[in-house]
Structure formats: C-alpha cells, structure tokens
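= Paired protein data =
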Amino acid sequence: DVRCFAGNSTNTKITICHKTGNTKNPCVAICVDYSALQEHLNHGDYVGACTKTCVTPTNSKHIEEVEELAVFKVTAYPNPSSSQFTLLVEGGKNEKVEVLVYDMLARMVKRIANDSGQPILFGEELPRGEYLTIVKQGENMKVVNLIKK
C-alpha cells in the first residue's frame, strides 16, 4: 500500500522515493500530495519505498494502486447543515460503501452500508454538534468532519 499519513488533510497522500542528487544519501522516502505526484515522477522519483540502489523498480503494481486511490473521492454537502447531509462517493470500485459516524465523545452514532452507488442521505435524526464521519470503500478510506447546526 503506497498511501501515507495525511494528517488533518483529506487529500490523498502517496509514498514516493525522492532522488536527492546527493551521493551520500541518493534517495529518501517522502509523503507527497497526489496533486504533486506527476511533477516528482517527471524528474525521476518513483512510487513506493526506496530500493537499496535507488533504481526505479520495474513493478507497475504501485502505479495501479495510485490510480485506484486517485479516483476515490468523498463530497459532503451542505456542511454545515441544519437538517441532513448528502455524501457523494466517487470511486473506481463497485464495492459496498460503509459510513461510520462518530460524535465528539468518540461514540458511534450511525452506521450506514450502501451498495447502490447512489448518494447517501442522513443526519435528520442527529442532534446539533460536530461529527467525525469515516467513509470506507474496500481499502479506500476518507474522513470528513460534519457540523449539524
């Protein structure tokens, strides 16, 4: 898996081997935003962990993983909302989408399974507050903060 820690960002981050040009330390593994990936690839960096020799491996499996990750997108609207939320999940897979909604005390308040590919509507029953929403589809996952006012 070439995904790496994204911090508070909901952007997809990818592990790449960055060629430094330094003879003592010719390459180093770094975590970059998907939007910066092509620029790194253009100057010789490659997807995945660094090899001992810093030579680009011939395995294309990592590129396929990156392409799959890039198409997984979650859009939540309206946010904030006074009634309900709509989640749009766009992905390259036809797998079931699972949504886990937690309140700020880390209690799961809602679980939704959706395999229809249709937008997910929910939240009318939720009280005012902030919610951490985890959206999973296969190995893909996004976290979205929702506010009910």
